[in-house]
């Protein structure tokens, strides 16, 4: 796969994850915060997706990413609905 193709896949995945995370808005910062408020965490989720072997693994990773980034405790259970959406939207396109 060419770098251009990989970049297109990354950008498409990033857009999907950004839409889902911004709708979830776990800290209820939007619309007051800038549209890119969660972009660092979204990039980490996109990277995590390539190694996640299940929705539960993804959910646990999302919980860890947001817990570390915002010093707020997120559980795997509360991240499961958003993980399911991300999994469904990104894994079905492959």
Which descriptors apply to this entry?
mainly alpha; Endonuclease III, domain 1; 4 helices; single chain
Give the name of the CATH superfamily: Apc36109-like domain
Under the CATH scheme, the architecture is: Orthogonal Bundle
| Radius of gyration, in angstroms, nearest whole number | 13 Å
Please estimate the helix content. Answer: 55-70%
SSE sequence, one letter per element: HHHH
**CATH fold group:** Endonuclease III, domain 1
Number of helices: 4
> Any idea of the CATH class?
Mainly Alpha
Number of domains: 1
Can you describe what's shown?
- Helices cover 69% and strands 0% of the residues.
- With 94 residues, it is an all-alpha fold.
- The chain is globular and about 40 Å long.
- The relative contact order is 0.15.
- The protein has a single domain, classed as Apc36109-like domain (Endonuclease III, domain 1, Orthogonal Bundle).
- The protein contains 4 helices and no strands.
Summary, kept brief:
The chain has one domain (3-91): Endonuclease III, domain 1, CATH 1.10.340. The protein contains four helices and no strands.
SSE order and pairing:
Layout: H1 3-24, H2 39-49, H3 55-70, H4 76-91
Helix pairs in contact: 1-2, 1-4, 2-3, 3-4
């Amino acid at each position: 796969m060419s770098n251009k193709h990989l970049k297109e896949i990354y950008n498409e995945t990033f857009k999907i994850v950004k839409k889902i995370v911004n709708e979830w808005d776990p800290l209820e910062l939007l619309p007051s915060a800038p549209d890119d408020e969660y972009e660092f965490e979204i990039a980490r989720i996109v990277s995590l997706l390539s190694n996640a072997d299940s929705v539960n693994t993804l959910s646990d990773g999302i919980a860890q990413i947001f817990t570390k980034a915002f010093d707020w405790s997120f559980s795997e259970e509360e991240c499961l609905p958003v993980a399911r959406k991300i999994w469904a939207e990104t894994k079905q396109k492959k």
